[in-house]
Amino acid sequence: MIVIPTLELRRGACLRSGPHNGGNEAASPATPVAVARSWANAGFQRLHVIDADAESGAGTNAELVEDIVRDGVIEVQVSGGIQSTDQIERLVDTGAASVIVGLRGIEDPRWLASVAETFPGQLMVGTDVRERRVVTRGWVHNVPLDIFDVLAELDSLPLAGLLLSAADANGHRTVSDLALLEDVAESCGFPVMAAGGVSTMNDLRALEHRGVAAAVLGSALYDGELDSRTVAQEFGGSATA
After folding, report:
1. What digits encode the pLDDT tens for the residues 32-59?
2. Are 123 and 162 in contact (CB under 8 A)?
3. C-alpha dihedral (111, 196, 79, 69), degrees to nearest 10
4. 8 A C-beta contact, residue 124 and residue 162
5. CA 108 to CA 90: how far, in whole Å?
6. Dihedral of the alpha carbons of 58, 64, 66, 68, in degrees to the nearest 10
7. How many CA atoms lie less than 13 Å away from 229 in the CB half-sphere?
8. pLDDT in tens, 187-209
């Protein structure tokens, strides 16, 4: 299993300055490219870049995302507001290792099948799950889809993977439902990545034990719950997951 740090962009800047290493954070403000390089220097081989403005419909940081991808110091998977074939094509042409589509990929299976065939091995589907059902709109509304019915539809597609965020009954992101993650990993013909809810090295080891290919981490690395270099030493691994 590998760990993939998150870099979140909003209003033309990174929300956080860089990895936390024993209290020595990267200088702030730092350019997004500099922050991406700091994660590579810490020993990670892939970065999860989120365009938060595009995700919320408040704007776009497309040029900054492309700058990070083109820099080439670290592999990049991109998410946030990706709703069209043109967006996917532009990111793939720029050099993104993979592109993550959200709810449209689940609600519009014909479109998903088309883009998956056009960009084989480069597209991932991201979804939030609570009580084994797909969730959207801030963990409030359940889509009437069982995650395993969704997996059955996705399994025939040439996807790069599935990014799964699990929540408890109160909507808090968690890795406590390890049985769900294990069942999903066993059901998929492609890699499964887990996002959020990790705060200890034992959490990461538990995910690895359940067959999860990668863990996407944010605050645990930025705030010092986990030391980035320690994590990278054990879970830096291969960027191909």
Report:
1. 999 999 999 999 999 999 999 999 989 9
2. no
3. -140
4. yes
5. 21
6. -130
7. 9
8. 989 999 999 888 899 999 999 99
Cα separations in angstroms, 220 against 71, 124, 151, 192, 240? 25, 23, 29, 20, 23
Residue appearing with tokens 């993939």: 4
Q: How far apart are CA 96 and CA 94, in angstroms?
A: 6
Neighbouring residues of 140: CB distance < 8 A, sequence distance ≥ 6: 171
Q: What is the DSSP letter of 189?
A: S
Asked if 228 and 42 touch (Cβ cutoff 8 Å), the reply is yes
**What's the angle, vertex CA 119, arms to CA 70 and CA 66, rounded to 5?**
20
With contact defined as beta carbons under 8 Å apart, do 100 and 125 qualify?
A: yes
How far is the C-alpha of 73 from the C-alpha of 15, rounded, in Å? 20
In one-letter notation, the amino acid at residue 173 is R
- How far is the C-alpha of 81 from the C-alpha of 87, rounded, in Å? 9
User: Count of CB atoms within 10 A of residue 103's CB?
Assistant: 17
Token code pair at residue 176: 């406590």
Cα 26 to Cα 31, 68, 113, 224, distances in angstroms: 11, 17, 41, 13
pLDDT tens-digit series, residues 208-217 = 999 999 999 9
The amino acid at 22 = G
Q: Which contiguous run of DSSP H or E holds residue 185? A: helix 178-187
